[in-house]
Write a structure and sequence with these properties.
The protein is α/β, with parallel strands linked by helices. The protein has 17 helices and 6 strands. Helices cover 70% and strands 7% of the residues. Helix 7 packs across helix 9.
Length: 442
């Protein structure tokens, strides 16, 4: 095995054996799986049904508000507001909905006078649920008052579906831009996180070796460029290992949790047992028959070979480019606190890229999206968004070529800095000093 290979092996094994690697590898999937599981558990558990008293002086809404899992409405008859408040305290109900009549039960007065009394904080969902129901009924009452035919209004309501069709030669294919956009943005965000997490690890590794003077021993056996390249590739392999373990373990945890907590809830047997009546069965069967082909069409519309291939390329290309820069920064300073002045120029392109990625989603063919997907410092993130949404082949080829050239140029510059900086101690380095290192021939 050559010397670079030995350095890669050393970097890889020394990091995967650390307790922090093991802890984060196990903790990461639990945290990610909790993002899927906890919201479902909360939705499943819900909160106990609350009682809401209703004092309707208008008699326009009696029996109108519908009970649900969260609230049960109890209508009060033949009592005034003070008596209703007393009953609220005695019954320990959740709240009292008061709909006053005013002088003539005018709808314009009613809509501005409805109140909820409670000794507890009323939840936003409940408050807006009541608001929406009463607004809808008051609108209907106004329309009836003006002799407007509600049936015609209901019949005029329209919900259209717009399909986007891609043209490839004479073949037309429906695509689902929302799904592909989401896939592209997730991929771009993973690259962004990977570069930051593991680029910083490269930098810290260089600083630790430099401060402990171990690097002097290593440099006596290998060239600085071999050391830098071995460190970057070794950390990249650690990152890929951790990323793959996160994906596998997260999938396993979510699957086990689904079987343990939600298996009965969502099993077809349970659903079938809960169904009553042929109409419900027919409706559910129809919805299922409609949904499954649509999901399959969405999956088919995503060009997975292209997206996965581009993800691997930009994933590695972006990391290697920035990893070299982080290694150069680590070699130029004596401790981590001194890195701040050099971190800003490196991190700004990444932050700009993640900001532009959000505008690229709305307009993938804009000039800013094009140039940010071509420039090597931002292309790993922006081009992933554009690839998922469909990008001209020439744009993709130019971006890849420039990323490779950018990576080679960055490694050349970083190696120049690394070669001198790795053996420089006790001196505050400025940008002018680093420029001299880059220009130095020898």
């Amino acid at each position: 095995m050559n010397r670079t290979g030995l350095i890669i092996q050393r970097e890889y094994l020394s990091r995967v054996r650390k307790k922090s690697f093991v802890v984060m590898t196990l903790l990461g999937p639990i945290l990610m799986a909790s993002l899927f599981i906890v919201p479902v558990l909360i939705a499943e558990s819900g909160s106990p049904q609350q009682e809401m008293l209703v004092l309707d002086e208008t008699d326009l809404f009696t029996g109108y508000l519908a009970d649900n899992d969260e609230v049960r409405y109890t209508y009060l008859d033949e009592m005034d507001l003070d008596q209703a408040k007393t009953q609220l305290k005695e019954n320990e109900a959740y709240g009292l909905l008061y709909i006053p009549c005013g002088q003539h039960c005018d709808l314009n007065y009613i809509e501005k006078s409805i109140q909820i009394y409670s000794e507890k904080t009323i939840g936003i969902d409940l408050k807006y649920g009541i608001k929406r129901q009463l607004e809808r009924e008051i609108e209907n009452l106004k329309l009836r008052r003006d002799s407007v035919d509600l049936a015609k209004i209901e019949a005029a309501k329209t919900s259209i579906t717009i399909s986007t069709i891609s043209l490839e030669g004479e073949k037309e294919e429906e695509n689902f831009s929302e799904a592909t956009t989401a896939v592209g943005f997730i991929m771009a965000f993973l690259i962004y996180m990977f570069i930051f997490l593991y680029g910083a690890q490269v930098m810290r590794g260089v600083i630790e070796e430099k401060s402990s003077r171990i690097v002097e021993v290593i440099i006596s056996s290998v060239r600085p460029f071999q050391l830098m390249l071995g460190k970057i590739v070794g950390v990249a392999m650690v990152g890929l290992t951790q990323f793959l373990l996160w994906v596998i373990l997260t999938f396993a945890i979510v699957t086990v949790a689904q079987l343990a907590f939600f298996g009965d809830t969502y099993s077809s047997t349970e659903i079938a047992s809960q169904m009553s009546g042929s109409e419900v069965e027919a409706a559910m069967q129809a919805a299922q028959n409609e949904a499954i082909p649509k999901i399959m069409k969405v999956i088919d519309s995503i060009n997975f070979p292209l997206i996965i291939g581009c993800f691997i390329f930009y994933f590695l290309g972006g990391y290697l480019l920035y990893g070299a820069l982080f290694a150069a920064i680590g070699s130029a300073v004596d401790n981590e606190s001194d890195t701040q002045q050099f971190m800003l120029p490196v991190t700004i392109p990444l932050i700009l890229a993640i900001i532009v990625a959000q505008t690229t989603i709305t307009n993938p063919e804009s000039p800013i999206a094009f140039w940010f997907s071509i420039i090597p410092f931002t292309s790993p993130i922006i081009m992933m968004v554009r690839v998922a949404m469909g990008v001209p082949t020439m744009d993709l080829v130019i971006s890849m070529i420039l990323l490779v050239l950018g990576f080679l140029g960055t490694v050349w510059v970083a190696a120049k800095i690394y070669r001198t900086g790795i053996l420089m101690y006790g001196k505050k380095v400025s940008y002018g000093e680093i420029l001299k290192w880059i220009k130095f021939k020898g």
